[in-house]
Fold:
Amino acid sequence: MKRLLFLLMTILLGMNVSFASDKESKKNAENMALYEQAVKAMEDNKFVIKFHTLEGRRSRIRLDEQTNFFILDGEYTTYQYDTGRRWYGTDIMGGGRHYDYPDIYEGKASDIKIKVDDKGTVKSYVSTILKGRTDIIVVYKLDIRVILKKGSNECKVMWKDKGNPQEIYYGTVHPIGTAEIRKAI
Structure:
């Protein structure tokens, strides 16, 4: 009886381990497919980076991926940043104000480079001049570095604006048209 029980337990444990390894290999295959799609999109200069985290000097902010993104479509760039917070109020004169709506910047990329090393790490560099579409016209010259490691579409984006400290974004790279994003009007 003990031998039979031991045999059944061994079989059940073996089945459980094989199911776990099947799940892991399936997930690895899905991640490699996402990686290959991301690399192809970056090489074609037609990709979207959906940001999920912003790391500043003193804080780490969780972002909504659908409203925080960077798009490179050929030579045209779009950057949208939305904290998700809204504040309505009045100014000193009693007029209504709307603060903290999504910031939208559009522009042209002037310098695009991409390099894939032996380990499969993709490093992309984009230099762009962005003009804001908000109430106040703002022009930014940005140097953007994207690092994508082999095996996933997760990336690290180092964002350098002239005169401001570097910001680090974390997100995912997708081909244009496959990522669900919400552009503000």
The helical segments are 2-43. Residues 131 and 139 are 4 Å apart (CA to CA).
